[in-house]
Amino acid sequence: MTEWRKSTHSANASDCVEVATGIGIRDSKAPTAHVEVGAAAWSSFLTVVKRDR
């Protein structure tokens, strides 16, 4: 079973983005669909987000 995690910055537990290692990202309001994101792309995304804080 895949463990989906919600952002700790989500104000409302039903309106957030969830991530799963090795799987991708999804909208918590539409949990049956997800976008596949590879490890390198996810790492690049996090680097940019952290840099631009």
Please describe the structure with a list of short key phrases separated by commas or semicolons:
53 residues, alpha+beta, four-stranded antiparallel beta sheet, 25% helix, globular, DUF397, DUF397 domain-containing protein
Map the helices and strands:
Layout: E1 5-6, E2 17-20, E3 24-27, E4 35-36, H1 39-51
Please provide a written account of the structure.
The protein has one domain. Helices cover 25% and strands 23% of the residues. The chain contains 1 helix and 4 strands; from the N terminus they run E-E-E-E-H. The protein has a 4-stranded antiparallel sheet, with no helix packed on it. The longest helix is centred in the last third of the chain and has 13 residues, at 39-51. The N and C termini lie far apart (33 Å). The model has no long low-confidence stretch (mean pLDDT 84).
